[in-house]
Specification:
Layout lengths: L17 E5 L2 E5 L6 H5 L4 H36 L10 H6 L4 E6 L2 H10 L8 H8 L6 H10 L2 E3 L2 E2 L13 E6 L9 H10 L10 E6 L4 E6 L19 H4 L12 E7 L9 E8 H12 L4 E9 L8 E5 L8 E12 L3 E10 L6 H9 L9 H6 L1 H8 L16 E8 L9 E4 L4 H15 L2 E3 L5 E3 L7
Antiparallel strand pairs: 1-2, 3-6, 4-5, 4-6, 7-8, 8-10, 9-10, 11-14, 11-15, 12-13, 13-14, 15-16, 17-18
Helix pairs in contact: 2-7, 4-5, 5-6
Length: about 475
């Protein structure tokens, strides 16, 4: 926990003396000098760095104090409601209340034919194919197999747990239980409030519902950077929370349709990327939204700051370069170009992917445009070296970390087409991070003050010869 040093009341301070904090120690700052004495006491580069450290320490202490105060208010509000599960109207409370119901379907020739088409069965159709085609809350073969194994699906009132049971005869009655929910952590509400309280100053870094329709069961929720969208099957440890794990505390169950076991994401964002993610809570809506993604009818926009210039402000073009041997297409628009002491220039781009390949935008920027995204991985900077040299006629400068090292790529918009449950479609935008504008502004300011990077990679001020 960060604690602020005790402040001395202004009435008890000597005239003209203020208190400061550098490196965790209190010190006195002398009053400003005027006249000839001021000229001989101008700060050197070392004292300027010390003053900068003092200002940074003060900002960090203020941010920590604000976050702790917000966390205390959130916890107090939660305790007044009787804890995370006490409020009857909270989404978490609604998900925790299990509402099991039974659904019945009579096997007909239409159901068998639907199963045959859905799973491309030319000859033999098995029981789990029929179950997946008959019940919306069991949309896949795997979900149907697991339900049969648990005994949640009965055939004429009896369990069928075999692995390769043939389709039941026409007229058989299938009964399936639905409405069960996955186990929820008891402290999920507190974890959510703690995360948001510690990031209260940055909207893009918080969990936030941007739009929702609880009636039919869909929502758009902001995913912060630094967290996986959902668990990775092969390499992810279940001890770590994912974006999907927080959703029951944010999005309520649907009022209509077949309720999912928990809120589910319909697409992914990279670990280092923040932005809007489409979430569904009803099985019927989930099928419609996932079909729209598969048919490439969902529009997405990203913002990125890249190294170098790829065109003038307002230029628009398409990048059609395969990624991992698969077709990949991205629409690019140049929003702003700013001079940069290190790379010569940096550019803010609007990126609209037409396809959804793995790391498509990062690969297109680095390998196709020769303009890697600021703070991207060293491997992508290495891949950008050759196209950079072809474009600029010189070697790509070494990779330098800007700010805290966060990737300068953010999803800012998602557009859903008209579909069942979403009349007229929906376009949802997220807050564009302020750090994009700040980076371009700082870079432009440093350039106009005379800072440049020499051949040895040293950043020098050409006006006074100082280097850093």
């Amino acid at each position: 926990m960060l604690l602020q040093p005790p402040r001395v009341p202004s009435a008890m301070r000597p005239a003209g003396v203020a208190c400061g904090c550098v490196g965790g120690r209190l010190r006195r700052r002398q009053p400003p000098l005027h006249g000839p004495a001021a000229t001989s006491s101008l700060p050197t580069s070392g004292s300027a760095r010390a003053a900068s450290s003092c200002r940074k320490a003060a900002r960090c202490l203020a941010a920590a104090s604000g976050a702790l105060e917000a966390l205390r208010r959130a916890r107090a509000s939660s305790s007044r409601r009787g804890g995370g599960l006490a409020g009857a109207a909270t989404p978490l409370r609604q998900w925790a209340a299990k509402e099991t119901e039974s659904r019945e379907v009579t096997v007909t020739s239409e159901v068998i034919e639907r199963a045959r088409r859905a799973f491309n069965r030319r000859s033999v159709v098995y029981l789990h194919h029929v179950v997946a085609a008959a019940f919306p809350h069991l949309p896949t073969q795997g979900a149907a197999r697991r339900a049969l194994k648990r005994g949640d699906v009965l055939v004429d009132g009896a369990e069928e747990v075999g692995s390769n049971v043939l389709a039941p005869p026409l007229g058989a009655l299938l009964t399936a239980r639905s409405g069960e929910v996955d186990a929820l952590p008891e402290d999920l509400q507190q974890k959510l409030e703690s995360w948001n309280a510690c990031r209260s100053a940055r909207p893009e870094a918080r969990f936030q519902v941007l739009a929702q329709d609880a009636d039919v069961g869909w929502a758009v929720v902001n995913k912060p950077a630094g967290i996986h969208t959902s668990p990775c099957v092969d390499s992810y440890s279940r001890d770590r929370m994912t974006f999907e794990d927080y959703l029951p505390a944010l999005v309520p169950p649907p009022l209509r349709g077949t309720r999912s076991r928990r809120p589910r994401v319909c697409h992914r964002l990279d670990f280092r990327v923040a932005g809007p993610v489409v979430v569904t809570t009803a099985e019927e809506t989930a099928r419609a939204v996932k079909a729209a993604f598969a048919e490439r009818r969902v529009g997405k926009e990203y913002r990125a700051v890249v190294c170098g210039a790829v065109g003038g402000e307002g230029d628009a073009f398409a990048v059609d370069v395969p990624v991992d041997g698969k077709p990949a297409l991205t629409d690019v628009r140049v929003l702003r170009v700013a001079p940069c002491p290190h790379y010569g220039s940096i550019s803010e781009l609007s990126l609209r992917p037409r396809t959804g390949r793995y790391h498509q935008l990062r690969v297109h920027c680095a390998e196709a445009l020769g303009a890697p995204i600021v703070n991207d991985e060293p491997a992508l900077f290495a891949a950008a070296a050759e196209p950079w040299e072809r474009r600029h006629g010189r070697a790509l400068p070494r990779r330098v970390k800007r700010g805290r090292g966060n990737l300068f790529l953010q999803a800012v918009e998602v557009s859903l087409p008209a579909m069942e449950g979403i009349t007229g479609g929906a376009t949802v935008r997220a807050h564009v991070s302020d750090r994009f504008h700040q980076l371009l502004q700082q870079s432009e300011r440093a350039w106009h003050r005379g800072w440049r990077t020499d051949e040895q990679g040293q950043c020098r001020c050409i006006h006074d010869g100082e280097s850093t």
